[in-house]
């Protein structure tokens, strides 16, 4: 049996969570105070994921860059490939919150969305 | 002189929320004065996610959270003057401001809400010895350069201070291709949220050196390196523990200070503990009709709490304007007892409080398994065990009006941390 101690990143409370595993199989998740913590802990010990936020270049607009985010979690090991792909993206203004900056980024099945209104 | 019912100084999350609440309570002549060229304040550069779980039950980025409130302000046609700097607020609520189009001008306000936010503690306030080369930035300045202006301040980075902005910038600089050597923290615990230690430092293998500080800065034109050293329990560097770290960039994340030059000049009483105005349950300062909310009042770690507090300030300012805010009546001080650094509000007027009141406070040190207590003079009305209490995380308790009404001779409310 193996125990993994985690701090939940689901919200600012930062609950300390203990996951008990046996040969990679999750037996127990303890210490979380909500469902979000349970989901996070199970993913974190099997296949950790993160939301990535960054900026992309913008032309014909009042700002040189605009902030973006992945619409959902992507595998942790895809963070740097996604950052590299974002460098190549050039958007043209104006852009709105929710506009798609890139579809299915790096084959993750997740789109990249604009997070700011820029005229 | 032109006038408004309500003038709000600052168009960040506090000012926007206060404006929306005041409008929804029936105030129509509202003006927001903002010195930047757009609304949204600091949220515009906080492009990371984690905002709005309480307010919108979803996780938004800073600009998205700001956009929701900017939309609310626009839907209500609330007037805003951008690129406009307020120079002075008088005790009788004449606001002097300046911008390129109108020059210096004055406006009369029925009520004023102070929502100017806070500033970072700069190098000059930290007394770090050494040269003054280029390459030393506050973390927030670097955040603005990277996230809004599209510039990278450097490639080899040391960060002093483990406040949330420092941690967020450690990740951000790493994602943009810089190497963050370490984060040094003077205290024996981090000043940031636990989840930021995990997702900003541990995810990227960035070391956090607790009880360490920068003791020397090297380089004449451009920063070439810093010397860090371990500190003792009195935060004094321990000789022999010095380490040299070559770097071209030093980011400072060493605390935020409420920006109260306008408040002080107006005659608003400030609290030495928060550096913000002393306010009562209505978030009203000692000056009638002048209210305060958000980071100008005390530094918050969650924008959701800024929004809640600012809704309250907007509602109370509206009540004042509509002659629905009763006079203050008897006043009961709220005392920060053992283990508590401050409370907001620090005075309560039971005769005009709502059915219940949220008291926000910070503890002065990390405590595990301690009890959070509220005493009304010699009687303890709350005794709640807390697994962890930390200065980085704002706490709150609710006090019921009925508890205060039962005690007409009450001399003080005390919030404290107790071992048993």
Task: Tell me what the structure shows.
The complex is a heterodimer of chains A (119) and B (420). The model of chain A has no long low-confidence stretch (mean pLDDT 94). Chain A is of the alpha+beta class. The radius of gyration of chain A is 18 Å and the shape is elongated. In chain A, strand 1 and strand 2 form a beta hairpin. Chain A is built from two helices and ten strands, in the order E-E-E-H-E-E-E-E-H-E-E-E. Chain A has two domains: 45 residues, N-terminal domain of TfIIb; 62 residues, Roll (CPE0013-like fold). Chain B is an alpha/beta fold and 420 residues long. Chain B folds into three domains: 189 residues, 3-Layer(bba) Sandwich (FAD/NAD(P)-binding domain); 133 residues, FAD/NAD(P)-binding domain (3-Layer(bba) Sandwich), CATH 3.50.50.60; 92 residues, no CATH class. Chain B is 21% helix and 34% strand. In chain B, strands 1, 2, 5, 6, 7, 8 and 19 form a seven-stranded mixed sheet that branches. In chain B, strands 10-17-11-12-13 form a five-stranded parallel sheet. In chain B, strands 22-20-27-24-25 form a five-stranded mixed sheet, with no helix packed on it. In chain B, helix 6 links the parallel strand 12 and strand 13. The model of chain B has no long low-confidence stretch (mean pLDDT 96). At the A-B interface, strand 5, strand 6 and helix 2 of A face strand 4, helix 3 and helix 6 of B.
